[in-house]
Amino acid sequence: MQLKKVNVFNNVVYLKSLQSGDTLSNKKTKPWLSPIQYVEVIVLPTRAIDQGIELPNSENGGLTSVMSEVCSKECRYLVNSLRPNRYKGKKFKGICNQNRPLNFWGAQIKKIYASEFLNQIILHDQYQVRVSVFGDIGSLNEEGLNFVYDLIQNSNSHLAYSADWRLDKMQRFKTLVNASVFTIEDALEAYSLGWKGYGLSREDLLKFRLLTNGEVKAYTCPYTTKTLKGCSVCELRCNGEKWISLGK
Ligand code: SF4
After folding, report:
1. Which is the closest atom of ligand 1 to the Cα of 178?
2. How far is the CA of 245 from the centre of ligand 1 (A)?
3. What is the DSSP letter of 166?
4. Among 10, 111, 157, 173, which residue carries the largest CB count within 10 Å?
5. Which of the residue ranges 20-34, 148-162, 202-216 would you say has the lowest mean pLDDT?
6. Which residue's CA is the closest to the ligand 1 atom numbered 6?
7. Do residues 177 and 162 make contact, with C-beta atoms less than 8 angstroms apart?
């Protein structure tokens, strides 16, 4: 099946695949180990197409501006000025480490969008998809969400997370996407809405398990920096089916 690499909705859904000539070098996901085609979804602002390489610069609003357009307002990895108060303080240090290639992606999608020849990706009969590397699908309009939903449904397997699991429009993803949860309170809320979460520490997931009278089975992410395996070949898989804690 042929799709566009740069898909414009209210935000851009940018598809990248090793098998379509893209370089994917994430050490945790290890796309090169996937036995079938590996596709990544990145959500970017539409102005990336007009502004290209200037996308994340401080002169035009910088990372704060990009995050306010494409990220979940409920993510703990937002820049401090956007981060919800409950995720401020010692325990919640650090911002999204996927912001580094923004500049590069902005330039890429500008170039690809301008060329009918470059703006295509062939989906193999068998593929897995990761949703999303940067940006949250909760920032998309219904048309964009339909596109992502079909991409997941037509895949052989997928990896997916969202911090926007509280939004009404996201409820149809609750069996496909892991809810990003950062506190036990988040986990209880996600649980009451029927989501399965990823992101608690192992200790907090065990406490949460007790709070649900053991109803929740707790799995631990097997990834470590020393392992040769990555998400692309993970047997647990963050695909909305299990409660999974961080590996530490
Ligand atoms: S559980 Fe598996 S898919 Fe999820 S983050 Fe860990 S290694 Fe990746």
Report:
1. 4
2. 9
3. T
4. 173
5. 20-34
6. 221
7. yes
